[in-house]
Each structure stands twice: as structure tokens, then as C-alpha cells.
User: What shape does this take?
Amino acid sequence: NAGVTQTPKFRVLKTGQSMTLLCAQDMNHEYMYWYRQDPGMGLRLIHYSVGEGTTAKGEVPDGYNVSRLKKQNFLLGLESAAPSQTSVYFCASRIDSHQPQHFGDGTRLSIL
Amino acid sequence: AQSVTQLGSHVSVSEGALVLLRCNYSSSVPPYLFWYVQYPNQGLQLLLKYTSAATLVKGINGFEAEFKKSETSFHLTKPSAHMSDAAEYFCAVTSQGFQKLVFGTGTRLLVSP
Assistant: This one.
């Protein structure tokens, strides 16, 4: 049972480039989340989804877009990467609103 | 709005000593509370959760936490620290409406021999 899988694990981009981070879960979870983690700031929610076809903004959504076309996948896009988006990105999922979140191992993204 | 405050960005203990990591929350509804642990270069793993049942919650690796409504606290403890406990610990509370979790800024636990 793979749980929550994030691809890629590492990536280096140049300013202005675009990319998509993929999160896949095999637990049939309804809720999915994208966070970024920066030193001293904990985890900040970027976007989340409460079910297939739904998305909602979190705490720091600017510069990011998401899609949840399939229940098991949650994609995070950066249309025009900026150095301020250098961070570690975590995806999480949970089966319903009263259960804990399960996290992936993260994507380390550097933007030069 | 719900919020979490973790006192102390770093806590240092000796191996075998008591571990106490502090978490205070603010919530306008009865909260669900969680403690997560993060080892270097890994994602977050659930240590324990409080969901309005017993106020003393036991988790994995010998950790436990006590929900105290009067103090709006959910401190994490372990009687005897082990070197393998060195990690970052996050407290989280469910948002109003339960759709999201609100995380604290984390406490890094350092364990010395």
C-alpha cells in the first residue's frame, strides 16, 4: 500500500518556468491538500480539495493553481515560478473531515 | 478562527529525561487536536489524536498528550527521551467546519547523550 506519493521528489527551475507537481493517493480519500513548508513557518496551506472536481484556496494560494480531475490525484501547478516559491511542498489526504491527514514525503523545489 | 501556538521553537533534553512539548490552541468549537512528528527529509507522521473521547491520549513511541479544556492546552509528553526521538513536532487543530487543519510552527526536539 503506497499511501500518498509525490512526484517529483526534487526539482530545480529557473525563474519564469512552469511545472506541475503530482500527488497520488491509493486510499480512496475524499480530502486532499497541498502545503508548503519553510523554516520557522510551519506548514502553510496552499490549496485543498474536499472531493473530485472541487478545489478551494488555502492560506497562501497566490502563484499556484490546482486541479482534481480524478479522485486519486491532486495536481499543483506553478505557471511562472519565482524564487519566493523555493520551498518543500507536501501533499496530504484524509478519508473524511474527522480523520487525521496522511502525508507524502515531499517535493523539494528550488527556483533560481 | 482556530489557531495553534507552540511555545519554544527548540527544546533540548538529555537522553532518559522527561520530554514536554507545549501546545495551546484557540477554537470556537470543540476541537479535534493532533500531534505529528517529522524526521529529517520525510513527511509528517501522526503521533496521536484527540477527538473528544478520553482526555489523556496515548500515541506511538511512548508519547501521550492530555487535553485540558480549561487551559486550552494539548501538551505532548514522554517520560524518558530516546535519541531516536530527535525530530520536529507539530501540533494541529481542526478548522471550524472541519475541512482543514491549522498547524503550529513546530518544535524541534534535540536529544543529547
Notes: The CA atoms of residues 33 and 93 of chain B lie 5 Å apart. The longest strand of chain B covers residues 87-94. Chain B has a mean pLDDT of 92. Chain B touches chain A through 23 residues (CB under 8 Å).
